[in-house]
Amino acid sequence: MMICGDKWPRQILVFLVFILMSTRGTGAAAKPDVTQFVAVIDFDCTAPSSLPQGELAHLARQTTQKLGSRGVAVWADRAWALDLGGEPEPEYLVPLDCGATGNFRWAVLASGPVRLLGTVDGALIYVHARNSGWSELTGYASMGAGDGVGTSYVYRNGGYVAKSEHEVRDAAFEKFAQSYGLQSHCEK
Questions:
Q1: Could you tell me if residue 2 is inside a domain?
Q2: Which residue from 32, 44, 147, 168 has the highest number of Cβ atoms inside 10 Å of its Cβ?
């Protein structure tokens, strides 16, 4: 059984790429274009030292208090820094809380100026390569035993909002997992 903060197996990463391919209408036999992702973020990518103290840390805690905890563990004390919008200052993915199945609610925080850009859900957050504007994000939330939910998030009107949500099942996972292998983009 996995708990919050345990390293997720590579099979979940492969499964999410399969989900993304199937929701875009491409066949499972097509080789996935993993270069479309600049990072695959999970809890193990984050570190307390990556969340700047001061306004950002305060906003993370404040966001958790405002939204309330819906999980078994509350974090809001660590982050993963990345460039989502092409600005000089980085944005931060901050795990706020964690549910019993290892899914997280993440705050997306901007550092210049400090502000909440939205929240995204998932055990894994895929950061898509930015074509123009802001990177799209995709969260994969495990519902257990090969079932999950993939949610796409886009930047609109100053923040991240859910664009689409798809329930996913493990029908073709084994075949796909045997054909392709992926590595996390955030290994330390």
A1: no
A2: 168
pLDDT at 175: 32
Residue-wise pLDDT tens digits, 153-165: 999 999 999 999 8
pTM of the model: 0.78
The pLDDT, as a whole number, for residue 115 is 98
Question: Does residue 1 lie in a domain region?
Answer: no
| SS3 per-residue string spanning 67-124 | HCCCCCEECCCCEEEECCCCCCCCEEEEEEEECCCCCEEEEEEEECCEEEEEEEEECE
Q: Are 139 and 96 in contact (CB under 8 A)?
A: no
Query: Do residues 37 and 126 lie in contact, with contact meaning Cβ atoms separated by under 8 Å?
Result: yes
> What's the sign of the alpha-carbon dihedral 22, 33, 38, 156?
negative
Total number of domains constituting the chain? 1
In a domain, 185, yes or no: no
Q: Which two tokens stand for residue 73?
A: 């563990």
From the list 147, 127, 155, the residue with the least C-alpha distance to 139 is 127
Which residues of the chain, if any, have pLDDT below 70? 1-36, 145-146, 169-185, 187-188
List Cβ neighbours of 33 (8 Å cut-off, separation of 6 or more): none
Say if 34 falls within a structural domain.
Answer: yes
- Domain holding 25, by residue range, is 10-179
Alpha carbon of 178 to those of 10, 14, 32, 173: distances in Å?
12, 10, 13, 9
pLDDT for 5 equals 57
